[in-house]
Task: inverse folding
């Protein structure tokens, strides 16, 4: 192996098959029609939608309310989506296809909000702020998945690791009265599970989906047992101190963006720090190149002197670390106590976000934000007295996950050696 | 190549079907096929005992006095727990003998009830286990039996209370059929997605589970709610004609459902191993490429079992909905959820034996 570093170019060839082009175009046209016929036509022509642009409980970064004429806004959105769809059907957007799908999805969501909040007011900034918070476990789950899968290990047990970490973080945080120690405890418990996954799937070459599912079931069972046996009767063990909101001086007073991104708790900042570190480490350092090569072609990596087994253990343990942070978020960053099954499938949604984001940290955070937003809409709309039952809104993230997995946004490029145990010859 | 990587169901199937290597099996003849599950149960009991000991207050209290007392406390605690487990699952032999000797009919019933109750409890496990086994055989890891079961239960309950004026011999099977169809529909979606788009069935079925939980929650607190339930998600009582007939009077709930489960288990074995359809399905499960080479439609074979598994896992639970309500509170569905994951585990443990979940120790 040579020591002089070489510049590696990343080129992603985007091919859009003709069927996908057609399907995407039709969907975009349908979104346009939906916005017009369902939303716009059912809105009274003089109605105004008032969006509040400052989240509640904030003392800096105020912004004036945003008042929109509902019907005109909806008609404009519908026409824009329709035009995008028609262009997609005739010419196609090529490599921008996914971006355009995203824009149309945004139109749909925004149109939906304008429609629901016609003649009412909706705290849009509050919704975005809680969307960011809700996106944290999903995005961190996706990062955790990226770390494991880039090294060739399918980690389906992120859910279980998160659940275990959230419980341990709650207990340690309550006993020590220190959220930092709680976070540490959560991370350690999750790393322990990751080690089990590593030993099972790297050393004993157990099928990785099975060993992951085993960890999920183990976690669900153990946390439910401990919760029923101790946590429910002993509040002393289940009242961890929450990480407080920490406004970043200066940035926090930017209108709209300040309160949403720079006046949150430590987990949101951690998410962005991990994003930057992971993106740079994976694609700009030798460490990342080695990790990825082990996930793509372990034999070639081994031939070049990379220790495949050690690299994979490292990937899995780092994956556990990130999943531990994600799990601790539930008890230390959001709820303030542990409830049975409180991760509610967020680990799996994180995996979907990873696939959505094409195994790239930047993509994963985008997907995580989308899922978080879908989550936030549900809780806000029930406050508006919407006719749509809250349970249906709660289904949205799961439905989006399935649509994503069906390959609507195109087939991603999974690491080639993912899921295959490595046998040294 | 990408296909090889994507087919997790296939990988799992291989894992399960390969079993122990030949030489290893001959080395340990006494362990054989029955040995592994037995060993698993034993390990489970040992770990359970450890947990009981570690989490018991009285053990700690005894250890603070002396080590000897501590150990005897552990022994006591674990003994009490496992004795309770045994007597409530099988029954208390002493009580049984006494009851048979006496002539109190009610006492006899109560003494034998635990065992029969275990059979009642195992009925949904059998169905759910069969559902998973059928999926495995076609190369699918159907972790979504839980959601399929919820939907099946909702469908069966709906037919159970809305349809009136039918004789029992039509109504009960009709409710069964409705449950099976509901579950089948829920299984069909991930099956279709797997076959047509290659969508990961493990994640898809888990997503379908969550959708099913929310959907039943909405159904039971909205369209299907019982009048005067006061906001509790409970469905109306099903008609008498839709109830599965029970064999014995009051405390014993043992019913025909158990035998229906046995019958379905036999039917599925017969379908899998005695018909061309079953052969095709198993071929697709073990080697999709060879199956395609032989001219079989992989798509069809993946979708069909994908939709089939539910076959009736709803059976017993569906009719139980009237007493317990899924999604009533956080407690209940989670307990049920656990129930289903058990059924998932044990076909794998039983090396996908074709009795589905029949030998589940409950």
Result:
């Amino acid at each position: 192996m040579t020591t002089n570093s070489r510049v590696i170019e990343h080129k992603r060839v985007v091919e859009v098959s003709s069927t996908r082009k057609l399907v995407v175009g039709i969907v975009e046209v349908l979104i346009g029609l939906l916005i017009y016929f369902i939303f716009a036509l059912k809105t009274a022509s003089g109605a105004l939608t008032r969006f509040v642009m400052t989240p509640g409980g904030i003392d800096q970064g105020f912004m004036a309310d945003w008042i929109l004429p509902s019907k005109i806004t909806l008609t404009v959105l519908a026409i824009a989506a329709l035009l995008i769809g028609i262009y997609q059907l005739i010419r196609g957007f090529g490599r921008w296809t996914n971006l355009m799908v995203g824009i149309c999805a945004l139109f749909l969501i925004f149109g939906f909000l304008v429609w629901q909040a016609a003649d009412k007011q909706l705290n849009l900034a509050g919704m975005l702020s809680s969307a960011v918070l809700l996106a944290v476990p999903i995005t961190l789950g996706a990062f955790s998945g990226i770390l494991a899968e880039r090294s060739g290990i399918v980690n389906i047990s992120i859910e279980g690791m998160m659940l275990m970490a959230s419980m341990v973080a709650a207990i340690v945080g309550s006993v020590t009265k220190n959220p930092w120690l709680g976070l540490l405890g959560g991370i350690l418990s999750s790393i322990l599970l990751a080690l089990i996954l590593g030993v099972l799937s790297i050393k004993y070459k157990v099928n990785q989906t099975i060993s992951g599912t085993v960890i999920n079931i183990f976690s669900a069972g153990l946390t439910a047992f401990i919760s029923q046996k101790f946590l429910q009767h002993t509040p002393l063990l289940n009242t961890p101190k929450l990480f407080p909101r920490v406004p970043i001086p200066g940035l926090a007073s930017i209108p709209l963006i300040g309160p949403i991104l720079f006046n949150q708790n430590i987990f949101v900042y951690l998410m962005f720090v991990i994003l930057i570190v992971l993106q740079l480490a994976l694609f700009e350092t030798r460490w990342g190149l080695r990790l990825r090569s082990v996930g793509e072609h372990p034999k070639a990596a081994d031939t070049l002197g990379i220790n495949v087994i050690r690299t994979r253990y490292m990937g899995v343990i780092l994956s556990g670390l990130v999943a531990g942070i994600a799990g601790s978020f539930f008890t230390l960053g959001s709820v303030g106590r542990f409830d049975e099954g409180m991760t509610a499938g967020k680990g799996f949604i994180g995996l979907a976000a990873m696939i959505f984001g094409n195994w790239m940290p930047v993509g994963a955070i985008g997907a995580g934000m989308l899922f978080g937003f879908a989550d936030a809409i549900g809780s806000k709309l029930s406050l508006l007295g919407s006719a749509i039952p809250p349970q249906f809104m709660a289904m949205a993230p799961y439905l989006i996950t399935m649509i994503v997995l069906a390959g609507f946004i195109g087939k991603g490029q999974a690491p080639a050696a993912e899921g295959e145990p490595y046998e040294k010859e | 190549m990408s296909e090889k990587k994507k087919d997790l169901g296939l990988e799992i199937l291989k894992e399960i079907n390969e079993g122990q290597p030949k030489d290893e099996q001959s080395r340990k003849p006494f362990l054989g096929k029955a040995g592994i599950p037995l060993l698993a149960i034993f390990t489970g009991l040992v770990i359970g005992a450890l947990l009981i000991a570690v989490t018991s207050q009285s053990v700690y209290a005894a250890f603070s006095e002396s080590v000897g007392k501590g150990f005897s406390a552990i022994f006591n605690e674990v003994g009490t727990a496992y004795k309770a487990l045994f007597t409530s699952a099988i029954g208390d032999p002493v009580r049984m003998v006494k009851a048979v000797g006496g002539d109190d009919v009610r006492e006899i019933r109560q003494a034998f009830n635990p065992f029969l109750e275990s059979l009642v409890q195992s009925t949904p496990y059998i169905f759910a286990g069969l559902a998973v086994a059928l999926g495995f055989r076609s190369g699918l890891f159907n972790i979504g039996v839980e959601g399929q079961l919820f939907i099946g239960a909702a469908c069966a309950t709906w037919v159970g209370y809305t349809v009136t004026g039918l004789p029992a011999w039509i109504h009960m099977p009709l409710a069964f059929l409705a449950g099976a169809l509901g579950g089948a529909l829920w299984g069909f979606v991930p099956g279709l997605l797997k076959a047509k788009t290659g969508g990961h069935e493990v994640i898809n079925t888990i997503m379908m589970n969550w959708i099913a939980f929310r959907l039943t929650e909405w159904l039971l607190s909205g369209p299907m709610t019982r009048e005067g339930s006061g906001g509790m998600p409970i469905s109306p009582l099903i008609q008498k004609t839709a109830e599965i007939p029970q064999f014995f009077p009051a405390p014993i709930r043992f019913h025909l459902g158990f035998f229906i489960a046995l019958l379905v288990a036999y039917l599925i074995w017969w379908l899998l191993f005695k018909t061309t359809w079953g052969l095709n399905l198993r071929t697709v499960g073990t080697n999709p490429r060879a199956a395609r080479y032989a001219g079989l439609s992989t798509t069809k074979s993946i979708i069909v079992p994908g939709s089939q598994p539910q076959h009736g896992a709803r059976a017993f639970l569906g009719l139980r909905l009237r007493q317990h309500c899924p999604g009533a509170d956080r407690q209940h569905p989670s307990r049920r959820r656990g129930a289903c994951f058990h059924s998932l585990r044990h076909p794998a443990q039983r090396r996908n034996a074709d009795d589905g979940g029949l030998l589940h120790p409950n």
In short: Confidence is low (pLDDT under 50) at residues 1-5 of chain A.
